[in-house]
User: Fold this.
Amino acid sequence: MRAIWERAVSTAIEERVDAVILTGDMADNKNAYFEAYGALRKGITQLSQIGIPVVAVAGNHDYDVFPQLAESMPGDTFTLLGRDGIWNDTVLKTRSGRNLRCVGWSFPSSHYDRSPLDSLGLSQSNDFTIGIVHGDLDTQSVYAPLASQDLVDQPVDLWLLGHVHAPKLYCDHRVPILYPGSPQPLDPGEPGTHGPWMITISEDNQISPVQLPLASVRYETIPVDVSAAVQISDVKTLVAEQLEQRGSELIESHPNLLYLSCRPVLTGQTRLHRRLSIEGIADVYDLDVQVSECSITVDKVFIETSPIRDLNEIAQLNNDPPGILARWILELTDGGDHILLDPARKSSAAVYNSAGFKTLREKEPDAATLSRLVIQQSMLLLDELLAQKEEND
Assistant:
């Protein structure tokens, strides 16, 4: 995190931005002084030396770090908004001469199970207003739950939210809502581009947000069509080729990329489907490659291939089990609800609502994902039924 913070500071200085805004969780209160405190202080000092103010709110991880940092910084070089869970604002003057009002709320402790918006009494202003708060959007949570509609109802022109690591821009509301996300991805569940955002505000208050690909780490899911593969070695060759091609493309547009962790998804109809589904691919580390300064590794391989079977032909087998299953798969493929989806939904709900899964705070698979998983397992079962039938004939 230190390296990408330093790159972000350098970029802000090069671009002569009007302000730098931090949405929290820049440091962990358990190891802040050893990992991030010094780097944050140094970066803020560098920014202040050329007149770039830094405005921040504290998140659940750095609720006690940012107040100490604010106390230690001289003058108005660093503004912490919403200390002790009380909303307040500050007005910045941009280089163009316009006012930029920032209103924010900080975590008073490591947990907060109420909406911070309940205590926000914000008046209308002619200044462009940015709301800054750290919390969970549209979900029950002990980390400052926020409702989209409540955000939109406020006299705010742009909301910047912290807490969620994956970047996400919501433009389907009257007011844009942006989760900048973690500047450096922390696990494979955060694929795609990471880095700070450059936000330009036009004279008529329209925003142009652009994410800067400054992260040195990236997680990527790469589809690989293995229809042409005859042997497992052919599959490995196809995967390696796709890894190198995708890596070369990303390095060209992401010059800071040093580590690319990939999850190839094997697709296509192949006679290797059954073997791949049962055995997978051994020694995936053999697929690791080096492209320029970037190390490309394989985290795991997902198998979403299908056997070379004519479902329509198999479906003609009347009341034979393979025929019934083939008809069900065809119906599932056409979309809509199906007899197989109801028990799958119940099983999924039972797992995700169990005590163990609840602590992970994972969301249940949506309808499309659940249907895809049912089709995948049904195809594997169909292949097994047909193999048994062929052995007995």
Summary: The first helix runs from residue 2 to 15. The chain has a mean pLDDT of 90.
